[in-house]
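Dear all,

This email documents one entry for the complex benchmark we are building for the journal club exercise. For each entry we list the sequence lines for every component of the assembly. Then comes the predicted three-dimensional structure of the complex as a token string, followed by one or two observations. Please use this as the template for your own entries, and keep the labels exactly as they appear.
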Amino acid sequence: MGMDERKFRILQAIIDDYILTAVPVGSRTISKKYDMGLSSATIRNEMSDLEELGYLDQPHVSAGRIPSAKAYRLYVDQLLQLGTIRSDSEEAVRAFFGGRVRQMEEVIDRAAQVLSSLTHYTAVVLSPSGPKLHIRNIQLVSTSPETALVVIVTDGGVVRDSVVRVPAGIDPDTLYDISRSLTEAVAGCTLEEACERMPILIARMGENAAVLQSVNSLMGEARDAGPQSHVSVGGASNMLAYPEYSDTEKARNFLSLLETRDRLASIVAQQGEMAFTVRIGPETGVPEMSECSIVTATYSTRTGRQGTIGVIGPTRMQYSRVLSILGTMGEQLSEIFGSGGSPTERK
Amino acid sequence: MGMDERKFRILQAIIDDYILTAVPVGSRTISKKYDMGLSSATIRNEMSDLEELGYLDQPHVSAGRIPSAKAYRLYVDQLLQLGTIRSDSEEAVRAFFGGRVRQMEEVIDRAAQVLSSLTHYTAVVLSPSGPKLHIRNIQLVSTSPETALVVIVTDGGVVRDSVVRVPAGIDPDTLYDISRSLTEAVAGCTLEEACERMPILIARMGENAAVLQSVNSLMGEARDAGPQSHVSVGGASNMLAYPEYSDTEKARNFLSLLETRDRLASIVAQQGEMAFTVRIGPETGVPEMSECSIVTATYSTRTGRQGTIGVIGPTRMQYSRVLSILGTMGEQLSEIFGSGGSPTERK
DNA sequence: GTTAGCACTCTCGGTCGTTGAGTGCTAACC
DNA sequence: GGTTAGCACTCAACGACCGAGAGTGCTAAC
């Protein structure tokens, strides 16, 4: 017993219907709503076969069938292969980004909002992270008589800015001089290398060593923090609208997972080179998400760093719609971050 | 029929019990669990009076009573008057802030997390906002051959940093010179005044006018953005644990309110001079929150700007606990932001 | 003023048919 | 041999019903 053309068409119809209604679908429904020119009895036989093949599950004897994870997998593989992702949502995405936005974090937050409101699922956007960063510039900016702002610029944008104490009443020009020699000393280094060199510089500096000391500890933090990425979530409440989450306990677990950003980031972060990733149910590897699917795409910045955008929804997600929207959103973000001198990348 | 001492004690007992159990409390429960030396019948009579006075509600005839908003109001007024807020949570709060944190937003996010996990309710933290900002320093930092980072420092900290295009290959020292003359020209001004002066400066500048133009539009944005505060929410999922929100529809409305940050901020933002604000049920003025209470406190920064921290929970909230925790958290934040040269304020 | 007693009310949780959707199987049909 | 009509069977969902229990209000006695 193989998987012939007809079985596939029936399976497709079942998935489509279930995605729409979230109700187990019976043989009569298929034969009536989707005119296949077959009676319910025939469909029934085929469905029985499909169940045996592992594509359908049956909640109980006298309910209809629901698609299994395996079925969804087949479905999206088909979708991805065909490359049939129409970008009918392009304009909607564009419209949302209407106003110029500047700050990296604003863009990320916005993207999460847009994604969730277009898909009606929960969206997660990760800020770009990438290979080791090389220092390009270090600058001290006076903020008050006793404090200064340290800005470390790398080829990935601004990595770290923070306030440090400086000797009271220090001259802004002196700060600039320190910045210059500092920049000369460590430009082109990675953060690691720079941290190693700092002790030598500090020793050589003399009177303003204290300032460098502060800068040093800051660089240490930046190095240890690693690819410390910003995570933005949108439309968490959307999930509650689906019957899958009418059980409060489940909803709670899901939401609290969304709140532990570190864990969430590591779950969503997409590995590999593919344009899209689809993980269905158990494939997510997260117990709390065994009834969810995660679809992700990537975008990239002009400096070659990569970010991830993702949508989390019930396994009966509207995959083709979501893939399409993620596609345009990815392009859009790449465009925004790619164009010469726009948003600040930070952290 | 007045509100005598005994009635008050009984009301207190009812409130305490209901806060704990969320179940309508009956006369027998009170006479047994809280030994008042009175029989259930007497309690019953008093309860009947309390209901007439508007302090108790009755879901239906043969259920116990639940406290009304008016009762909670009396209760917390008592609490606030007595000033009996013990800071037994001080150490817990301190412990959570163990590691030094630097960035303003990190502190805010952290505070929201800590608040929610200590109270088991939902926490909202608003970044400080305050009176008009005066410019202290403007600096251009080279980030790539064609781009530079603009940092505008005000007496409230760093307000705005963003990347602008600059003529290709411009010398870092030239950038510094521009920064210097710019700073000289507008230091001490408010953002509004600075925006007005810019056209003159641009005209005078000559060859690098384009750079100033970019800075100008950036200042315009900063001015228009206003007190654009950062809002951080923690423990949104906590609310789902309470029977009040076992209805998914309610939970959804609540969560989606939390997601519209602008609206949320305007709801939570505390007006007035008081140390604490407690709004109970309908007092919140938000339909979605007619079954919630909002408790807020303030903290302040060294520059005199004020931020708000708040906890949102069911009306049967553990007010005294929450007030205590909010109190210590407020002090703690004031300390962190007050101490000389710590976290960057931004936005 | 307090308390015991009692009738009354109303929710909650369980049981029990009934209903209807859906299946699987068999036998007839093309 | 595949397709279809028919039929018996299963089982969740729904509503009605009922008893238990919690709680009240009222009255009368202390």
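Observations: The radius of gyration of chain A is 26 Å. Confidence is low (pLDDT under 50) at residues 340-347 of chain A.
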